[in-house]
Amino acid sequence: MSDDFDYDVVVIGGGPAGYPTAIRAAQNGLKVACIDGWKNRDGSSAFGGTCLNAGCIPSKALLESSELWHRARHEFAVHGIKAGNLSLDLAAMQKRRAAIVRSMTGGIASLLKGAGVAPMFGTGKLLADRVVELTGTDGKVSRLRARHVVLASGSVPTELKSLPFDGKQIIDSWGALELEAVPKRLCVIGAGVIGLELGSVWRRLGAEVVMLEALESLLPMADVQLATEAGKHFRKLGLDIRLGAKVSGAAAGPDGVSVQYTDSKGAQSLLVDTLIVAVGRRPYTHGLLGEGSGVRVDERGFISVDDHCATGVENVWAVGDVVRGPMLAHKGKDEGVAVADRIAGRYAHVNYALIPSVIYTAPEIAWVGQTEAQLQAAHVEFKVGVFPFAASGRARAMESSAGFVKLIAARATDEILGVHIIGPLAGELIAEAVLAMEFRGSAEDLQRTIHAHPTLSEALHEAALAADKRAIDNLNR
Ligand code: FAD
Ligand code: NAD
To answer: What domains appear along the chain, each with residue ranges and CATH number?
Structure first.
């Protein structure tokens, strides 16, 4: 490193995009600092960003606990287990969630230090010539000169102008993870990924849940067959999903929150105890770009980057939720690691076509690659194999036989083009499909791969066989 610089790399943001960038850059022998400005409600600082503090990890902790509660109440009897009088200790459930978050975020600080990264709490602002102005948590301002700067400032919940968050009755996803009592009547605006996951949590714990979704179809980004099957299970759980609902306003009062919306039948209103607004997230760049930074932000607020996450300003990069592409932790992590390798002069590539999506509901939903509709629109000829979990011995033994695996392969070449799973541990099963597709594998490659019996993974094997009408364990397909 030249003497003109304090650091080879300064990363602004310590979420799942920023901290892996810093660790990989340090592994590449560079001198690295990682600045993070996350503030918990008690005023403490923590690494890990949205994902660890208020997103992926706490939501999965509550999804797991609430699913166990639901299964104990509704499925134990089938297993021959008489559980007696079950009772819910929400405080203990929330304590567990908080403890997981604390230990995971503390772990990131240790990882950074272990890798030789200088961890810094405070806010970073990029000035001209890759000078980063750091305002520490004590208010002290200092300047760091960096050879490279990586912007990883993430995203925040989108607020609807007509119903601003009040932090009590009208809350965002972070508030929805920290409720201290189960609301009797809950409304969720937006039946997207957050709405479905958090709506499931509170429904399982006993809330009446109405979900208002502006679009006319549920999960339009998913394969239609998957979305249709998912809709069936959400309704069975008791989620009252109202499609084509345009929310016009809400007012919080002593009796609850009254929500106004219109649908195909006209003006409607609802009275609920709590309203969760989950209508998407927006990139966060507040206070990030100082005068002369030269970094451009597009009309939707995302930092403009090329295919390699370069901003166009020399040696300034941006990764994660603050740039285009799906707002997913694993996408940000892959981008960050790739940028750190590029900075070190190594080869790196992010395969945007094969980013898996997972929705952690029950049944779980996961997919990678293209849907039938996308392939039809592109005039690609394909074949489809479907295998239901009802025909999987392991799924039956688990009492989790809802759903299926659907595999789509090119008719001409047999290459796997998409895999869509709804069922037990779909998020784990999709990894095999991602790997097969990374290697541009064919349905025949999966057909000829031995899968242990009895495992859920056999369903993917059988779906690959079914694409050629050669399934063994499900002759109907
Ligand atoms: P963030 O995680 O938002 O981190 C950015 C960090 O930068 C923050 O700590 C922020 O405080 C800090 N920062 C911002 N500006 C500055 C500054 N100027 N100076 C210093 N620090 C700054 N994704 C998944 O893949 N799987 C899931 O299961 C999943 N579940 C989710 C559940 C919920 C409820 C939510 C809300 C999100 C979920 N996501 C999930 C999305 C995931 O959390 C985001 O995609 C991911 O956190 C983005 O990572 P990031 O590092 O780009 O940004
Ligand atoms: P989303 O884009 O998944 O869903 C938002 C939903 O709100 C959409 O269906 C949209 O049509 C609807 N909507 C928008 N405006 C509306 C309005 N005025 N009235 C009614 N409905 C409206 O966004 P999200 O669920 O807020 O999640 C944000 C991001 O976090 C997503 O990009 C998601 O990928 C990520 N996330 C991922 C996971 C996961 O990977 N399992 C979990 C949670 C969040």
So the answer is: 7-157+282-352 (3.50.50.60), 170-279 (3.50.50.60), 363-466 (3.30.390.30)
